[in-house]
Amino acid sequence: MTANATAAGPLTPRQAERRRGILRAATALAARGGFEAVQMREVAESAQVALGTLYRYFPSKVHLLVAVMREQLERLYEQVGRRPPTGADPAARVAEALTHAFHALQREPRLAEAMVRALSFADRSVGSEVDEVAQVTSAIVLAAARLPDPPTAGQQAALRVVAHTWHATLLAWLSGRSSLAEVRADLHTAARLLTLATPAQPATAEDELQLVPPPPRGAARVGG
């Protein structure tokens, strides 16, 4: 919900359902025709609300489509919880989750294009909504990583860079500047930042013994 719509307090169940209907209508129009197909009057007609009511919930098309993007990302976040990635380490799990998220958006290229264009057009008036999109993206990355301990400052910075990379690769693919193979490679490269930002575990006595090289064959034994 935008700041204009939440100024009076939390949504009532009826208002929440109306808002969901607006988002469904905008999503359907974007999926069919991309950014240009989402016209506020058509959204209002499809959602069966007055145009003035629509503007009270979303002051502009950009506000509306950024909210659509947040909703889509929230669904991806829920999927990570239902089907956690199975990679052997945090970097592998993050790369797996973000690649899956990318493929999910790839199946709806016009919708993805509409959301990413809205995000790129967003000005300060959409700042809180853009921040929410960034927060959900970071939550997806953190949930996928399944770090054994709360993230360190370095890991938090790495998580933010990974989230920014995901948005950038999506934009590059939509604009035709990156192939699918390049997107996957970029996501895996960014995810490895988590490994670099993770402090090395101190070696145990057993580990240290295993690191001692064996004596060369034929070496003389002491006292032999």
From TrEMBL:
Residues 204-224 are annotated as: Disordered. Keywords: DNA-binding. Residues 39-58 bind DNA. One of its GO terms (molecular function) is DNA-binding transcription factor activity. It comes from the Bacteria. Residues 16-76 form the HTH tetR-type domain. SUPFAM superfamilies: Homeodomain-like. This is TetR family transcriptional regulator. It comes from Kitasatospora griseola (Streptomyces griseolosporeus). The lineage of its organism: Bacteria, Bacillati, Actinomycetota, Actinomycetes, Kitasatosporales.
